[in-house]
Each structure stands twice: as C-alpha cells, then as structure tokens.
C-alpha cells in the first residue's frame, strides 16, 4: 500500500468525540501510522469543516467518476459512503468481545451453571438488561449505586443497565403476584453492568449466574443454595481444599443494634459500612459507624463480634436465645446432611455489600487468598416491601463469570476447548460445487455437522483447514466418483480412505 | 391491611422523575388506590422536602422504637430503608421479562438456532451489547440511526446499545486481522435495541440470530446461508408452502445508476429510499430519489426494473453481461443442488434497509402475507473499509426472535414446553429434612434432577407440586423406612410404589 499524503486523511464528523491525533488514517494494520500534524489540544477542530473536506476529497479517493455505460458494472462494488472513519477496533473500555475461543469457554461455563440448576430443579428466567433506574436506587450507601450505568432514554425515562439481577426478580414476583405457585426456584444467567474504576482484571460488565428461592422461610433454602454451588464447583474440578464458604447471619448485627436500642433504620447502612472492613482502615470504619449515629460502646462491641470465627464463641457473647445462633446451627447441621461440611465455616465479619440482606449471608472464597469473592448471597426477606409489594421469604446468590475463570487459571485446570465438526466436504472441481452442496445437505439432514468448502481451493489448503477445525472426516467430491454416484471419504484420525455410495453415507 | 391515611404516603426522593398521583402508596395490588391530593403539574414537588417528610414519618411507620434487650431479636427482621417506593412492576416499555414459560420458548428457539449453526459448521461469537456510538452512525439515511439507544457514559464516551450485530463483527474482524484463518463462519445470538415507535407487536429489543461468512467472494456463501435458514425452518415445522425467500442483487441498481452516470456515492442512499417502497406512497419515493440527485429518466427506469419478478425479464432489460444476472443465476442453480429451489424467487423490489449491502440481498417472508419480513441478509463486501479496515468479501443474515414466533402462533404449531424433572424428594417428618437432603445429594450425584421439598408440607401439597413441575418420581423419606436405610418411591405416571434401599436408588 503506497503511503498516503496526510492531506488525504478523511474525517468523519460523527466521530468528533474521539478525535485524537493519529487516529484517522487510511492505512490499516500499519504499525507506524503517519503522524498527523493537528493536535486537538492546540487547534480546535470544527466537525463541519471536516465534513466538507471529506466530501470534497471523496471523488478522487474513490477513483471512479461514474462509468457511463453498463460495462463499467464490472468495475467493483460501490463504496458505502463518501468518508472513511477509522474506528477504535477494541470493544468499549471494560467490555469484552467473545471470539470463538472465548465463546467456547463462556458456553462451557454457562452449560455447567445450567446443568447444576437442572439437577436442583430450578427453572430458568431472565429480565431486561435495561431497567428503570428506580429499581436500583437504594439509600444505604452501597457502592453499586454510584456505579450505575444510567441515562435518560428518548422518552425521557430514567433507565439503567442492570448492575444485578435480584431487583428485577423482585419486580417480576410482585407483578406475577398470586398467579405464582410458591416456592419459586428460579435461576438466571444475565449480563450485569457497573461503571467501576478499571483496575487489572476488573471489567465493567460481567455475566452472573443467580439462583433464588422465593417462599421458603426456613434455612433449608440457604442450605440448598450452597449445596448447588458446591455441586457446581465439583463439576468443574474445584475441591474443598481450593475454596470454601464463609457464613454469617445479619441477625447477629441486628441483635447487637437492638441491644443498644439503635434504630432499625440504621441496619442496612451499618451492614454496608461493615462490608468494607477488609478494604478500608479500621479507624475509617469506626468513624463511619459513629457518623451514622452508633454510640462508641456499640461500635466497640460490634467490632469485637466481627472478629469471631466460631459459633460457640458467638453464642457466649450473644447468648443462645436469638434467631441468629439457631439458624446458623441449623445451617451447619444441614451442611453435614447435604455432605458439604468441609466447605463451610462461620465468619462474623462477612455481611455482604448489598443493602437488602436480612438473615444468613455467605460468600465463596479461594483458600489461597489471591482472589476477590467468587460468589455471594443470602436471605432478603424484606426486599419486596421496599418496592411496595407484600414481603415473601427469599434468598439467593450471584456467581460471576470472572473470578471463577481466574481461579481455574491459577489451578491450571481451565478446560481446553476445541472446535468439533464431523465432516468437511469439498468439491475437487469448480463445476462440482453444486454436487458438494448436495452431499452437505444429505449429511446435515442425517444430523451430521458439515463444513462445506465454498471455493475452489488446493487440496493442501483443504487438509490444513480440516486440521484447524478438527474435522473427523474429509469427503471429496471428484468427477470420476460422482459419475458413479460415489464420494471419496477419508477418516482423518487414521488416514483410512474409501469410496462410498452417496446413499450409503452415514 | 387497614386503610392508610394519605398523610402517611411516603415518597422516595430518587423517584421524582416518575412522580404521578396515585403512584406512591403503601397498599399493594390495590385496585382502587386512595387518590393523592397533589398534582405534579399544579404543585412543584421538591424532592428534598419529600425526603425529610419520609424521614420524619418513618419511626411511626416502622412501629419499633428500638427494643432495648436481646429478646426483641425475635421481633422480625429490620426494614431496609425508611421509605417505601411503589415501583412500576412492568419491565420498561418495549422490553420483556422472561418468566419460566417464556424462557422455555426462548431456549427452545435458541437451541434450534444453535443446532442449525452446528450442522453447518459455524462457530459461536458475541460482542458487547454496549458499543461505541460511532460504530452505528452511517450517513445513508437509514431508519436504524434515528432509533439508536445512545447516551454518554460516566467517562464522557458516546455509547449505544447495539441495534444490530454486523458492525461489531466487522470491528472484531479488523481487530483480529491476519490472525484469523479465512473463511470465517461465525454465528451469534444477541440482544439488539431500537427505540421504535411502539405499535402492536413491535418491541424495543429483540434477540437476533446472525450467521456470517467472511472471506468468500463467491455466491456459494449466500447459497449456504439461505440453506441454513431453510434447515432451521424445516426443523421447527415450517415448510416452503408457509414461507419463501425473495432474492435480488443490489448490483442491479448499481448497474442502472452507472448507466446514467450517477455518482457511486448515491448508491447506499438510493437503496435505503427504495427499501421503503412498500411503506410509503410511490410519489414520495420518486420525490426522495429526485431530491438526492437522480434524474427523472433514471428514476423511471429504476422503478420499472423494481417491478420485475423474473430473472429472464431482468436479463432483457439489463442485458446478460453484468455481474448481477450472472450471480443471481448461479444462486438459483445452487439452490437446486442444495434442494431448496421451491423456497426462493427473484424479486427486484427487495433491496433491504441497511446501507452496507453491496450484492445479493434476500429476505424471508410468510406466504400468507400477514407478517413483516422474518429474516434478511445479503453481501456486504465494503463494510470493513468504511471503518478503516481492509475490505474482505462478506455476507450474512439476521433472524429475529419475534416474527417467527408470530408465524408459529398463526400456524398453531408453537411448541408446548413443560418443565421436566426426574424426582421430587420430600421428608415426611421435620426431623428428616436432613435425611431428605442426603437423598437429594445422592441422586444429583448420579445425574438425576431433584426438586427437594424444603419445608414440612402436607402430602396433598406435595402431590400437587409434583404434578405442577411434572416430576416422574416421588421419593418419600419416612421414619420407619429410613431406619431400615430405605425410602418409598412412587412412579407418578403409573402410581406404582415400592420401598427401595438407598444405595440401590438409581
């Protein structure tokens, strides 16, 4: 490609948000793009001017001034527009493309989410990615609220890309009302969005597997949810020596707040502050707790309780009468019956960051301590009433698609997923492309997958492609065989080759 | 629930966009909500005032002034926040929830999309739902541009919810560059967004199945794509008497434009105008064509050609030398070899509404003529260069999830999809819930799906649930049997009942 004089650089007026030097160039895949003499900081760029420059330049760029007769119809297809915009070929910051190899991994992960959900009798649901902003705005100071991808749509509605799935679930449950037969056992795999500060490995979107049980007040529900996650871990090769669950109950905090006659209204706020305990200094936590109205003495007891790592120690502090202790004991007893005792441990410091949890909370963590929480969940018996609905007992968890992949990489057990196809079908002669199409149709009607070679290519190319796509058989359609109603079949793993009658091809 | 005095209505300050009379009420599912005396049109509402009203009212609303001793821990979970917001329980206008029954249908449809893509050897890919706005802004007057869900993110980037998948595909192909082995055969199933005027049956989001072939200049690629759609139709019970494909080539228009020495730059604009031919009056079309710069004579020939419905008639008008005729003939010849001749017909009026098509275009239509196009696609050999990439021959189609469902409904062949589960496991005694959990774990480890009853419920309730979820077996864990290491198993279709040893349960 000949070098292009910089005066021929074409600008697209709609791209003015992205105007950067070097950014617009007709050269493609060029490593050293010609430097553009403008700097957007130095010279204000008027999109209108650029647009007319583009229009003025386009005829010479296209090199075709209109053919004039029909023979020029062979001169190649027309250009779409009279300007070229060199776009940023990366997905927007914090988002991902899924080329085939990434998509295979995503599908593998989702398949396992679905398979576990099937084993536990959960039904799949989904909700809009775009929801009313109001659904996600709570006042407890959660991180999630400041990270909302929200905007006003063309109908002046405040909308947001969902940061989580649970509020949509609550909305749908209220909407369906009495028509639903309880308990509901629902799961969803949905993309969620948070406008986070980008740090290594943190993205602005992720997929989240949720399982929720609506209508069961007993702790059997939480036990069943954790059991599902354990089943999932086992399925993908993760053991109790790799990960564990920290379990707590927010009722512990609630009991402490009540013992100091602290208003119920502080509960969610206090939980959200405590959730930050491993992220910000302890003095900061104390300050925040006091600033929302907790007396010094209560802050002290609270922080003391948070360091407790055994149920018996907790019982000594709280006494044995409260719900918190009773439910936690029941959960640990059920864990034994489900067979996952070695996976769970009590940890009073776990409260989770979402405002709406009311009872048992839990999170999955890697025992090596290298990663963020793998998943998390809990009971949220009062969420529906905050939306104006009648409360129903409810619990659930969210399990993202990012940290688990990191863990599998750390352990070196990320599956190697290759494309798989049964046949590659190729005509040996351009005139036989129709015949090859007939063969492909026949095989596909029998349920066989077929990569049909759509151009005349040398055999060497065909073998290379067959290897790349992992084909099991190569079926060649050649003139001599085709006249006899036959094709040549080569098993690619063994090299075994034979001529087979078309109607005997399975 | 006692009636609530209107002075106790609580407002959520974040909801001020939605403030309507009647909208905020503590009553739930109430048909005649008490009238609220304010009108947002008459009295300006200050969210700050409302917030403090809410705070002032909250203690009496909660009815708990702080317990004072630990026994009050049994008084129920704390409220999340000090206000109730009655949300709109419907998904945002033009969007959908997928409760289990809708999700089953969506999964069934997607399964068939995937199965056909597998049979034809296509690999699955995906892209971000949120893309740079620049990717979708073309200047040919397409409807799609005015319908963009776009906004500025918190980092001041112009972004848009994708209205289609092809530009993202082009972006990814440019990004991957030489690392890709051509041809690519990629498919995607993705949600797309358009802010359309809401009419019956039209939504603002839909899922779209796309298949694209990158790197094949020959019309074998288009023939393969149409073959895939035919395979899909057959799979779901649709025949050639229900639907057909109208096929044309944009090179027909191109040849006409060239014969009148009309600038190449008008090509995309003319295509977009012609696409509206069945939606707006013909005089309007003529006026638009003239206004972009086509001479009267050219408009007349163009409109004459558009009414042509046979290839031979077209050949008479254009002569036999051009690419358009040659490619169309090849496509019809290949259709015969693939075995779908009866599905396709030539129709010069089909040009499709997207600016970037350059060659063969096609759309699937219902022969009853009741529905919009079912799917559509074509060749777009020049899209990559409009983004600053090197062009590659390319073609593809989009197939939405809405019209096909309408067609299946019209034909009365929408599948009836019911939940399916192998076992429902229930403890006959509250003390045996742990035992039931053990049974559930055992069965799930053997790959059996189990709905575990999580509460103590009467047997009548259990049978009703078993019927509702379509369980095959009911497994009861009772005291007498459990002591013997056995459970009671009932085959629900036959009523056959037996006691089975736990380790013999398959």
Automatic annotation (TrEMBL), chains A, B:
The keyword Zinc does not apply. GO terms for molecular function: ATP binding; histidine-tRNA ligase activity. Residues 54-75 are annotated as: Disordered. Residues 94-419 form the Aminoacyl-transfer RNA synthetases class-II family profile domain. GO terms for cellular component: cytoplasm. Its EC number is 6.1.1.21. GO terms for biological process: histidyl-tRNA aminoacylation. Keywords: Aminoacyl-tRNA synthetase, ATP-binding, Ligase, Nucleotide-binding, Protein biosynthesis. It catalyses: tRNA(His) + L-histidine + ATP = L-histidyl-tRNA(His) + AMP + diphosphate + H(+). Gene3D superfamilies: Anticodon-binding domain, Bira Bifunctional Protein, Domain 2. Pfam families: HGTP_anticodon (PF03129), tRNA-synt_His (PF13393). The keyword Protein biosynthesis applies. L-histidine binds at residues 164-166, 194, 208, 212, 352, 356-357. NCBIfam families: hisS (TIGR00442). Belongs to the class-II aminoacyl-tRNA synthetase family. HAMAP family: His_tRNA_synth. This is histidine--tRNA ligase. It comes from Salix viminalis.
